[in-house]
Amino acid sequence: LYPSTFNLLEVAAVDKPQLHLWETGVIRISRHPQLVGQVLWSCAHLLWLGTPFTAETMALLVAHHLFAAWNGDRRLADKHGVAFEYVRDRTSILPFAAIADGRQVLPG
Question: Which end of the chain is more exposed for a tag (fewer CB within 10 A), N or C?
Fold first, then answer.
């Protein structure tokens, strides 16, 4: 979930940029796509190498990303309150879970 400004005309010197919490694009598939990518990458490397060192390293990388996802959601909830809760309720961390539950639909 990546907050952004709506357009480039919202420059701080002219107008205060407005925050937009998106629930479209890749965010409708997974609210934390980097976490999903890290888990897939770690699983592939663990299967390929299969050493105890690889298992420990991949577990630490996945744990780091799990913490980052939790902390990011916590910070957005603290900062944006109800606006973030609305987006959180309509999206999912697990890929395609919000689409399967009917909270999101794929375009097209």
Answer: C
